[in-house]
Amino acid sequence: MSIRIFVTGGTFDKEYNEITGQLYFKETHLPEMINRSRVSPQVVVTTLMMIDSLDMKNTDRDLIANMCNSTPEDKIIITHGTDTMAVTASVLAGKVQGKTIVITGAMIPYKFGSSDGFFNLGCALAFVQTLPPGVYVAMNGRYFNWDNVRKNRQTGQFEEVDIK
Amino acid sequence: MSIRIFVTGGTFDKEYNEITGQLYFKETHLPEMINRSRVSPQVVVTTLMMIDSLDMKNTDRDLIANMCNSTPEDKIIITHGTDTMAVTASVLAGKVQGKTIVITGAMIPYKFGSSDGFFNLGCALAFVQTLPPGVYVAMNGRYFNWDNVRKNRQTGQFEEVDIK
Amino acid sequence: MSIRIFVTGGTFDKEYNEITGQLYFKETHLPEMINRSRVSPQVVVTTLMMIDSLDMKNTDRDLIANMCNSTPEDKIIITHGTDTMAVTASVLAGKVQGKTIVITGAMIPYKFGSSDGFFNLGCALAFVQTLPPGVYVAMNGRYFNWDNVRKNRQTGQFEEVDIK
Amino acid sequence: MSIRIFVTGGTFDKEYNEITGQLYFKETHLPEMINRSRVSPQVVVTTLMMIDSLDMKNTDRDLIANMCNSTPEDKIIITHGTDTMAVTASVLAGKVQGKTIVITGAMIPYKFGSSDGFFNLGCALAFVQTLPPGVYVAMNGRYFNWDNVRKNRQTGQFEEVDIK
Fold first, then answer.
1. A117 contacts A77 by C-beta, under 8 angstroms
2. What's the pLDDT band for D138 if we cut at 50, 70, 90?
3. Which of C14, C54, C55, C112 best tests the A interface by mutation, with the highest count of A CBs <10 A?
């Protein structure tokens, strides 16, 4: 079994620029994280973009959808900024069929000691292997269907739009 | 939904004793890890023992089985030393019915910078929510059925006994 | 022997705010760092302010000078943002006599895995015990006299103004 | 100014062997630490041995002394296990003249999140630049003269033999 990870940036991969004192993107930490996780399924990492998800445009989301369709794997993880995960999930649900796609990210950059990113990657990797085809967001130790998820900007937690 | 975590020790929770220079058990790091993970499902942590899994006895495994049966949750994670995970999985499969039990651990103590433990906990938490009732080992980013798993002592990787 | 540490903020103590995605100040990490360092000299930590050194005003520097004069210790460490360390050093040199004052900071926040802060604190603690009275900046593993130091904004390194 | 660091092993450089579950020596972390510290003085690292200081023999100490004498630098840091630092300091004091030698180490391996090693290296680097020729132990944020230091095995703290 082979799993594809598409990197798009987000808090996950932000670094501290010691010259400017700002957070910025350099390279993704996914290969380092995969190595540290000692996973045995074959995982292939491809960086599509390195951007803040508030800066993600329709053309970016089209690119992600196209890549999901053209990659041979049917189990796909997308690392993504948390602010617009639900938007991207919705776009992918309309354009990609028959694949299990799990979008995840982090509230704290991986390079910060207290990051949730490594845990979230573990969740995403497990969900992508066990959930039926569809598009999901994996955050806060849960998965959400693409059409029933939002980020609560006050608490920083993901939640269902309609609690059933 | 509520998830129970039973702590039994293992590499996961080992600390460095600066007086003796040996690794030892003090307190579990699970509550700290749960807090850092920002999980929204309710997770309840109970420490059953803090031992190396090579020192785990039949009576210890009976205790774990009894606790799995008596706890109200039907989704249970057990943190455990890696060396005898498969033995405990087998005992639990014979004694506990109708619950999803996921045994996990770490190759490197959580307090070491390079630990796989936080990732493994993420995997276990996702698997316990998505797998049908049964007993599983979650390591190396995968899950294994209780009756088809062993630790390869040379590579440190978990693998199936019979590759189907 | 007793050493006073005055905390003023700076990169050293910046945290990641997971709701806004910005760096900010919460509480100083100095007590945690002192604990971890296992120092035996008595070290007393006082937080004077928690600000970016680019926001430091004359009244802030007057406050620091007054505190250096009124505290009973004659060995003083000041944690400080790197951008205006040299300005503060100059103000203190004009207002405080007969004490050894070492200003230090960090290029990367302590809470980032790759921070230089803990090392710099070690340098500052050693320099404050061994240098004669005067005002110094301790960065990049060196000490600089207050009247011959600047931060090179291109390289992020501290250097002498006049190389003797 | 150039500073020589001789690596001899000790807790400082211990790693966790995930196959055996034991602590062991692989490679020194000193180059990584030097890089992270952003030091501007030229620092040259040479690994002499990678051993537990309880296993250090007279011939090992003779080798260290010979290397201190033959290296061109007159400012030397030695990383060393904590248990026999005082013994090595005494040997060096008898064999090396006219150089400032600072022996340091760690109570917790550098690769453990809570290590004191990076701080101690900062202290040692500052002390070696400011102390007169002689042999010193730098631990717990202090320096000790070679003939008045011991490790308290109960507390793990270094202390003077004779309190003046």
1. no
2. very high
3. C112
pLDDT digits (tens, 9 = 90+) for D10-40: 999 999 999 999 999 999 999 999 999 999 9
Residue B156 is nearest to which of D18, D109, D112, comparing CB atoms? Answer: D18
| Helices A117-130 & B117-130 angle (0-180, nearest 10) | 30
The ipTM is: 0.96
Question: What burial letters (b/e) apply to B4-17, b meaning 16+ CB within 10 Å?
Answer: bbbbbbbbbbbbbe
- Decide if C116 and D38 are in contact by the 8 Å CB cutoff: yes
C156 CB burial (10 A radius; 0-12, 13-18, 19+): middle
Q: How many CB atoms lie within 10 A of CB D39?
A: 22
For A50-69, write each residue's pLDDT tens digit.
Answer: 999 999 999 999 999 999 99
Whole-angstrom distance, CA of residue C52 vs CA of residue C66:
20
Chains contacting chain C through 3 or more C-beta pairs under 8 A: A, D
Partners of residue D112 in chain B, C-beta under 8 Å: 16, 111-113
Q: Chain A: which residues have CB within 8 Å of chain C?
A: 11, 16, 18-19, 21, 23, 107-109, 111-114, 153-154, 156
Please tell me the pTM assigned to this model: 0.95
Whether C126 and D138 lie within 8 Å, measured CB to CB:
yes
Q: Which two three-digit tokens encode residue A131?
A: 């959930």
B82-138: pLDDT as tens digits: 999 999 999 999 999 999 999 999 999 999 888 999 999 999 999 999 999 999 999
With beta carbons less than 8 A apart as the criterion, state whether B41 and B1 touch.
Answer: yes
- 3 state SS for chain D: CEEEEEEEECHHHEEECCCCCCEEECCCCHHHHHHHHCCCCEEEEEEEEEECHHHCCHHHHHHHHHHHHHCCCCEEEEECCCCCHHHHHHHHHHHCCCCEEEEECCCCCCCECCCCHHHHHHHHHHHHHHCCCEEEEEECCEEEECCCCEECCCCCCEECCCCC
Question: What are the two backbone dihedrals, phi and then psi, of residue B133, each rounded to the nearest 5 degrees?
Answer: -50, 145
Structure tokens at D36: 């992270």
**Among A113, A82, A84, A109, residue whose Cα is nearest residue A23:** A109
Per DSSP bridges, beta strands B14-16 and B23-25 are antiparallel
